[in-house]
Inverse folding.
């Protein structure tokens, strides 16, 4: 039997609001504040917020990882969350298909924007991020990724540029950002141009600048593992010149880096904000590589397990799991009886408009058990910090 994929194009009568108007700052702010108006009833105080983003991770990527690891059973850390919702990821581009920059800006700033923008509105106005807000509240902050730290998702939480390709400027801003932990790859963008490993054409020594401000800075994994993290106040670890290699080839994985970040950040009595990204689920989706997608999703899930264990013991931590978008249009077609062999199909090699998971645990987690716009997620998260309208804070940056 020959299976054919039928692609249908549907034309709709669009609302009277023109697309150009949606890119106007005032209209975007009005749209975003509608989300802010959906306040959490009987809001509970939150000390820490951990936001974990599976880049490109749709529901089917999670399903594939679950079947590959546990057959017909449950067993993922993600399976242990009491509240489950889903998120719409579209950007303000005409085709509504987001890139990682627009979606991460929504997750970091509570405002939808155009593809390519890093922490800015569609008209290039810088927005305050949830990470910057956390620092204003006296909390510690951290970013942990398996990509170059100047890549779109981490960049949106700690920098503000018009286009995601401006990695030199992203690195410069991130070196000055209010970060207590920064772990991943990409040290080539932080070295002066005279260094043979540098990807810069100027002589800015950004690692040196962070070290001079008191951070413990390392690009050596063995040195990182010798650190007494209980004594480290600020930690910068970049272990590859650009992205980390894929799961199975990299020397350090996301669970270890996540645990290190929690050890450093949790010493602040006022709490912390931590963003963790499983960066390379997306890349395996672009490549239509099922085995790679499963491996990266399971690595991300193990990092979730570390965060969930911390949240359960702590009792004051809101843990949120989501994705910036789905990649590849994955569909599970067939498995063996025990689930040890998977056959899957992909509709394409790019991002889709599919909804993505939202999982939550901890104080106010029930507020995420519904269909959400992606920019509502940070708006809801900060209400436990006593912030009632994050969009206003973002625009008043």
């Amino acid at each position: 039997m020959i299976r054919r994929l039928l692609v249908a194009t549907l034309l709709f009568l669009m609302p009277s609001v023109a697309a150009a108007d949606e890119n106007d700052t005032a209209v975007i702010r009005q749209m975003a504040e509608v989300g802010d108006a959906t306040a959490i009833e009987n809001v509970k105080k939150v000390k820490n917020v951990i936001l974990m983003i599976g880049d490109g991770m749709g529901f089917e990527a999670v399903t594939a990882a679950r079947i590959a690891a546990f057959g017909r059973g449950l067993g993922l850390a993600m399976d242990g969350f009491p509240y489950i919702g889903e998120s719409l990821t579209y950007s303000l581009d005409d085709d509504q298909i987001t890139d990682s920059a627009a979606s991460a800006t929504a997750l970091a700033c509570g405002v939808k924007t155009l593809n390519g923008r890093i922490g800015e509105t569609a008209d290039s106005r810088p927005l305050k991020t949830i990470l910057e807000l956390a620092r204003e509240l006296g909390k510690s902050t951290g970013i942990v990724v398996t990509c170059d730290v100047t890549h779109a998702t981490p960049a949106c939480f700690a920098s503000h540029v018009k286009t995601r390709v401006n990695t030199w400027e992203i690195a410069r801003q991130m070196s000055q950002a209010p970060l207590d932990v920064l772990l991943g790859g990409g040290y080539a963008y932080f070295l002066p141009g005279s260094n043979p490993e540098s990807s810069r054409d100027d002589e800015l020594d950004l690692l040196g600048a962070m070290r001079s401000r008191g951070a413990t800075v390392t690009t050596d994994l063995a040195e990182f593992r010798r650190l007494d993290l209980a004594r480290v106040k600020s930690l910068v670890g970049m272990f590859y010149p650009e992205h980390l290699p894929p799961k199975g080839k990299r020397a350090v994985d996301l669970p270890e880096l996540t645990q290190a970040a929690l050890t450093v950040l949790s010493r602040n009595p006022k709490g912390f904000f931590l963003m963790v990204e499983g960066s390379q689920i997306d890349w395996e989706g672009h490549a239509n590589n099922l085995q790679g997608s499963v491996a990266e999703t399971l690595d991300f899930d193990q990092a979730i397990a570390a965060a969930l264990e911390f949240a359960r013991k702590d009792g004051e931590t809101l843990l949120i799991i989501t994705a910036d978008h789905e990649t590849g249009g994955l569909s599970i077609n067939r498995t063996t009886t025990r689930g040890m062999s998977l056959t899957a199909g992909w509709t394409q090699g790019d991002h889709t408009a599919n909804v993505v998971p939202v999982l939550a645990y901890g104080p106010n987690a029930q507020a995420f058990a519904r269909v959400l716009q992606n920019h509502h997620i940070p708006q809801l998260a900060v209400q436990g910090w006593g912030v009632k309208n994050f969009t206003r804070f973002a625009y008043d940056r």
